[in-house]
């Protein structure tokens, strides 16, 4: 079994790369061409670098099936990185990851083509959320280029939502004199995510891309841009710490091993819990006197925060705990908000996985009732939260029966049958996820 990544075509600011899976792997691919658009001229990027976005997305799918990956030319540093990342994922997911070989027709040393000193700037994958803002605070002296990606949380065709994203990020960058660059790609859409979920959800805590592919994938998307702009480091903010004992697709064992040419990935802030990152942001606010919206919600179509989902509630609680008024950071919160959060816990309205549980327990660990909080009702809420068994709440929020059934059915369909019934399966997936 082999996935063939073809010769990339580079034209101006766009890369296209054909992906051809062998018959046994076709069910895991929804498209055949990876396209990436940058807001920079990448016409001088060599083919061995231009192929990295496609390679970074298809390699984990191949590894999950013990298959090889073939390509015309691969950068030496990235080829070594793929070997190391494949081994790391195999240690995380021994039940299904068995990396095959990456077989390039040619191995190219992109580092030999330009001097290392030309790559003295840095980039930061940036969403405007707690993790990436905390990483900016940590590296602000270096004035990193902020990099936004359209094609993951915001789909490549969701232009209205993307406009809302930019309206949040660009003022943040402009006030600090930072360069802001954007990437739009269908790379994730080329993968058949529902089928990947059907086969592998039983082994992972989150979605396929979050649990397996997003560290390698997002850094890989940055490779041509980093090469064109001279970025020697691309930071990707950590989601967890070493205390989180579930495997995850972005981890030091993955991100710190990703490299190409003179550029390396950096898994940033792994030593800090989410609440400790909020505290770092609070220190930055106290130092600078600045206020700015944080963007953490994935449900609001305008690119803001819905103020009504688990993640919004969690961020509001974390900000208040750190002494910050959420109303000054893109949220709407008052005493009723804490009543709503408590009610959601008590009626088990939150669908909590292991990383959500981890973050709420982190908030519990940082509760200090001797503090003065900026929103009424917070003291009573945190006193109540201290006694909540978050693990018990999480254990009662497992996958619904309909979702399990949809995955099981899709897992065992022959590919021709699956292809003809794909719309039915997608509807089952949406129903299971509560999308309709």
Brief overview:
With 436 residues, the chain is an alpha/beta fold. 44% of the residues lie in helices and 16% in strands. It is globular and about 65 Å long.
Structural category? alpha/beta
Cα shape: globular
Total strands: the figure is 12
Q: How many distinct domains?
A: 3
What Rg, in angstroms, do the CA atoms define?
A: 22 Å
Helix share bin:
40-55%
The termini sit apart by: 37 Å
Q: What is the average of the pLDDT values?
A: 90
Structural summary, described in words:
The protein has helices at 47-50, 52-63, 76-92, 130-139, 159-175, 187-190, 193-200, 208-229, 252-255, 274-288, 310-321, 335-346, 354-365, 378-385, 390-395, 401-411, 415-433; strands spanning 2-5, 9-11, 14-21, 33-38, 68-75, 102-108, 121-125, 145-150, 180-185, 231-237, 259-260, 263-268. It folds into three domains: 2-119 and 125-268, no CATH class; 293-395, no CATH class; 401-433, no CATH class. β7 (121-125), α4 and β8 (145-150) form a beta-alpha-beta unit. The longest helix has 22 residues, at 208-229. Strands 1, 2, 3, 4, 5, 6, 7, 8, 9, 10, 11 and 12 form a twelve-stranded mixed β-sheet that branches. It is built from 17 helices and twelve strands. The model is unreliable at 428-436 (pLDDT under 50). The chain starts with a strand and ends with a helix. α2 packs antiparallel against α8 (208-229). The chain has 436 residues and is an alpha/beta fold.
């Amino acid at each position: 079994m082999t996935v063939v990544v073809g010769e990339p075509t580079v034209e101006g600011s766009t890369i296209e790369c054909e992906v051809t899976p062998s018959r046994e792997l076709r069910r895991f691919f929804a498209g055949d061409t990876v396209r990436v658009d940058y807001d920079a001229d990448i016409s001088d990027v060599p083919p061995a670098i231009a192929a990295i976005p496609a390679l970074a997305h298809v390699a984990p799918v191949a590894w999950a099936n013990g298959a090889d990956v073939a390509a015309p030319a691969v950068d030496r540093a990235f080829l070594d990185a793929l070997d190391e990342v494949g081994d790391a994922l195999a240690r995380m997911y021994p039940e299904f990851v068995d990396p095959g070989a990456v077989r390039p027709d040619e191995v190219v040393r992109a580092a030999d083509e330009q001097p290392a000193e030309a790559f003295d700037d840095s980039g930061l994958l940036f969403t405007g959320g707690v993790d990436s803002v905390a990483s900016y605070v940590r590296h602000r002296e270096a004035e990193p280029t902020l990099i936004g990606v359209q094609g993951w949380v915001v789909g490549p065709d969701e232009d209205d939502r993307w406009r809302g994203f930019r309206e949040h990020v660009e003022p943040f960058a402009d006030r600090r004199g930072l360069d802001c660059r954007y990437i739009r790609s269908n790379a994730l859409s080329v993968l058949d995510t529902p089928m990947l979920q059907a086969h592998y959800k039983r082994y992972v805590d989150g979605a396929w891309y979050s649990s397996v592919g997003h560290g390698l994938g997002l850094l890989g998307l940055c490779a041509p841009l980093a090469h064109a702009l001279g970025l020697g480091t691309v930071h990707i903010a950590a989601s967890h710490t070493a205390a989180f004992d579930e495997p995850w697709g972005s981890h030091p064992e993955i991100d710190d091993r990703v490299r190409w040419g003179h550029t390396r990935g950096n898994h940033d802030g792994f030593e800090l819990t989410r609440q400790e990152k909020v505290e770092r942001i609070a220190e930055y606010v106290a130092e600078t006197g600045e206020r700015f919206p944080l963007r953490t919600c994935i449900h609001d179509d305008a690119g803001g925060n819905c103020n009504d989902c688990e993640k919004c509630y969690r961020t509001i609680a974390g900000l208040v705990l750190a002494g910050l008024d959420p109303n000054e950071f893109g949220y709407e919160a008052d005493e009723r908000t804490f009543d709503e959060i408590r009610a959601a816990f008590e009626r088990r309205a939150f669908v909590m996985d292991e990383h959500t549980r981890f973050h709420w327990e982190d908030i519990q660990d940082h509760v200090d009732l001797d503090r003065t909080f900026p929103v009424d009702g917070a003291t009573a809420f945190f006193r109540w939260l201290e006694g909540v068994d978050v693990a018990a709440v999480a254990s009662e929020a497992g996958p619904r029966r309909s979702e399990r059934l949809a995955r099981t059915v899709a897992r065992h369909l022959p590919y021709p049958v699956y292809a003809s019934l794909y719309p039915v399966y997608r509807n089952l997936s949406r129903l299971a996820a509560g999308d309709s």
